[in-house]
Amino acid sequence: MHATNHPAPGEGEAFFSLPVRVYYEDTDAGGVVYYANYLKFCERARTDWLRAMGFEQNRLYLEQDIVFVVRTVKADYLQAAVLDDLLNVVTTIDKLGHASLVFAQTIRRDDKPLFEALITIACVNRVSKRATPIPPAVRAQFATLVQTR
């Protein structure tokens, strides 16, 4: 499975798409994806998108003393995913603030949305544990990806 970024930054709607296969370990006793695992799939997509842009979270932690943490989650579970489903986690940037950003994420099976979330991520100084501005290079990249309405 390979992640894709369609289209390239600056070419219309920028988004990141991560395919995820549902394994037995992802499901509950009824064979349905356990509710918290949708958030794990979203986390993987956000992390892989950062990595694809050249911003590895461990490097940001070590070199710039910052971490990105989840501040709020607004989620809608629309339909169940089940064992062996091939899902697609589609991620866009909905809003960019000074020290935070909001990701809009949808998990789809084929063209059907199964899960939708708005996830606010805060940039935090790892030492003080307080909000801090998103580093200029990272913020500039994010700014090219913010969805226009």
TrEMBL record:
InterPro entries for this protein: 4-hydroxybenzoyl-CoA_TE (IPR050563), HotDog_dom_sf (IPR029069), Thioestr_dom (IPR006683), Tol-Pal_acyl-CoA_thioesterase (IPR014166), YbgC/YbaW (IPR006684)
Keyword terms, alphabetized: Hydrolase
Domain Thioesterase: 30-113
GO molecular function annotations of the record: fatty acyl-CoA hydrolase activity
PANTHER family: 4-HYDROXYBENZOYL-COA THIOESTERASE FAMILY MEMBER, ACYL-COA THIOESTER HYDROLASE YBGC
Family: Belongs to the 4-hydroxybenzoyl-CoA thioesterase family.
Protein name as it appears in the record: Tol-pal system-associated acyl-CoA thioesterase
Taxonomic source organism: Zoogloea oleivorans
